[in-house]
Amino acid sequence: MTDSLEESKDEQWMQHAIQEARKAERMGEVPIGAVIIYNEEIIGRGYNQRETKQSALLHAEMVAIQEACQWMKSWRLEHCTLYVTLEPCPMCAGAIVQSRIPRVVYGAADKKAGCAGTLMNLLEEERFNHQAEVKKGVLESECASLLQTFFKQLREKKKRSND
C-alpha cells in the first residue's frame, strides 16, 4: 500500500473514532473515541464512559477491545488496527499488548498519561512478548481540539458555579 493511500485510510478510520468521541462528549464524558478495524470493517467501537458508569475500566480503547473480542470470539485481535483519538494510557496500552493488536494509530498525544511514546512506550517495549507498531498524530488537531474545547467548557462551568 502506498504511503498516501495508507494515510488516507488512517484518516478515514480516525474519523470514525472521532464520531465515537462525540458520543462521549454528548454524555458529558471526556471526548475520547476508538474503533478497531479488521479486514476493512469496524469490529469494535468504544467511547469513554468512566463518569457515566463510574468505572475506571471504561476507557474508549477498553470498550472497543471488549466488543472486538466478542466479534472475533477470541481474546487475540491479531491482524487488527486500533484507532483512538487520544494516546493510550498505561492500562489501555497493557490491554492492547495483551490482546495482540499489531498496529495502533492515535490522534492527540497525552502529556499526562501517554504510554505510546509520550511518557513511555509500552506498545513497542521489546521485553514484552508482543509489540504494536505505533502511528501518532493522525488528525491530531481535530482530536486535540475536541479535548481542549471540552475542558475549556468544563472550567467555565465550574467558574460560573463558584461565582
TrEMBL record:
The molecule here is called tRNA-specific adenosine deaminase
One Pfam family named in its UniProt record: MafB19-deam
Presence of the UniProt keyword Zinc in the record: yes
What note does UniProt attach to the cofactor annotation?
Binds 1 zinc ion per subunit.
* Domain of life of the source: Bacteria
Taxonomic lineage from the root: Bacteria, Bacillati, Bacillota, Bacilli, Bacillales
Family label: Belongs to the cytidine and deoxycytidylate deaminase family. ADAT2 subfamily.
What is the annotated quaternary arrangement, including any partners?
Answer: Homodimer.
Residues binding Zn(2+), per UniProt:
H59, C89, C92
What the entry lists under HAMAP family is as follows: tRNA_aden_deaminase (MF_00972)
- UniProt keyword terms in alphabetical order: Hydrolase, Metal-binding, tRNA processing, Zinc
Reaction(s) this enzyme catalyzes, per UniProt: adenosine(34) in tRNA + H2O + H(+) = inosine(34) in tRNA + NH4(+)
Q: What class of enzyme is it?
A: hydrolase
Q: Which organism is it from?
A: Aliibacillus thermotolerans
Presence of keyword Hydrolase: yes
